[in-house]
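Hi everyone, sorry if this is the wrong subforum. Our group has a chain we'd like a structural model of before ordering constructs, and none of us has done structure prediction before. Sequence below.
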Amino acid sequence: MSAAMDTESTYSGYSHYSGHSKKAHRQGRDRHKSPRSKDGSRSEKSVTIQTPPAEPLLGNDASRAEEGQDDNWGETTTAITGTSEHSISQEDIARISKDLEDSVGLDCKRYLGLTVAAVLGLLVFLTPIAFILLPQILWRDHLEPCGTVCEGLFISVAFKLLILLIGTWALFFRQPKADIPRVFVFRALLLVLIFLFVFSYWLFYGVRILDSKDTNYQGIVQYAVSLVDALLFIHYLAIVLLELRQLQPMFTVKVVRSTDGESRYYSLGHLSIQRAALVVLENYYKDFTVYNPALLTASKSRAAKHMAGLKVYNVDGPGNNASGQSRAMIAAAARRRDSSHNELYYEEADHERRVKKRRARLVVAVEEAFTHIKRLQAEEQQKAPGEMMDPREAAQAIFPSMARALQKYLRTTRQQQYHSMESILQHLSFCITNNMTPKAFLERYLNPGPTLQYDRNRWFSKQWTLVSEEAVTSGLQDGIVFVLKCLDFSLVVNVKKIPFIKLSEEFIDPKSHKFVLRLQSETSV
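Answer:
Right subforum, don't worry. Here is the predicted structure as tokens:
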């Protein structure tokens, strides 16, 4: 707006030089607006926090757009069209294209594995029933009568199949949490074992019972019962291999984020590298603070500002080599290195001062807004039940009073891209519904939370790539290092084995603590 006022004053000051001052003034304003329309990134950068349309907070649209822009908008955004109100970065375009390429192959692999497991599971449960029913269908007249023991075996088979069905549902039929690059070795071995086991039973059944048409029906039923018992033991083996084996901690992994160096430690059991990567990612989303690339641009802008302050003049003419200029700039930057730490100190001190100042304003504004809510609730209790205000309406009523302070604080702490106006209103209505304090409302904005706290559309890490020198299906070993890469950063995982601890015991004789105190009978007076 200051630029617009300067332009208008310039044209008004020179109006006496031409008889068409109004026309020149109008053309000057058009020329002032045209660069903003051409520069799509500045004009299309929307404000992260917006007030409701019925109650505008800021004075006009120009100041609102100016406050919604960050410091490096020209380097991080790319306009799609000249008339669009949204912008998208090159990183988003690359992420979308990569997701589209990988989605088809991953879906096919996932559904193929589920189909094979479902067909094999159906074959396992139908096999004992088929063993019992086929003799009744094919040579029923030649079968020996089924006695009491045989009929009791029917009940045993029914309950054992029910237990096996429930156990299989609890162990295998789960919602998949992730797509791993390679097959799970133990699960594949179990499927192969079950297939060979059922195939061998069918082979024996076809040769010894179907071909000879065995008339001993009780023996056939006992054969089916033995199959169900063996399947129950295989299910127990699956529990040991898939669930119990990995419970005992054997390794300690250190996870470091490559951009800002934030690290965490986790204890893992006997797992393959790909399954250990899944555990690391599950803990990453809940333990690591959300990745904010805006906080990493401070050092880059500071270095660019130092280099921009250096000017090199070519006194030898245009034919001089450019390498001399680069060496001169490096030498000048080295001479200024001694004073750079002072600039860094004062920049950080000024940033902390501005953050504390805007945080204090935000706390006061939120406390006043919640005080207003308490007053409205006291007034609403005196009204009829049909006139009570909805929590959403109450949130929209008090939001404009705190929106400006919240917007400035989020812009100062570089968190504006993670909080939209709709998410703030939902959180505010949630706090009002559950009668929370202002401090509980501000907890989400004063301290950056984990990635799971924010909307999935604002995550910077969705598609991961596992990079390892060892095979991803091999188990964890001491000294293994693997990397989990996404589009913006990577997680470096270093595996260390928990050392063997030798604990000894030292026996202390209880009598060694006893002593005798002897007092003299005669004392001095």
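For your construct planning: The first strand starts at residue 251 and ends at 257. The first helix runs from residue 2 to 13.
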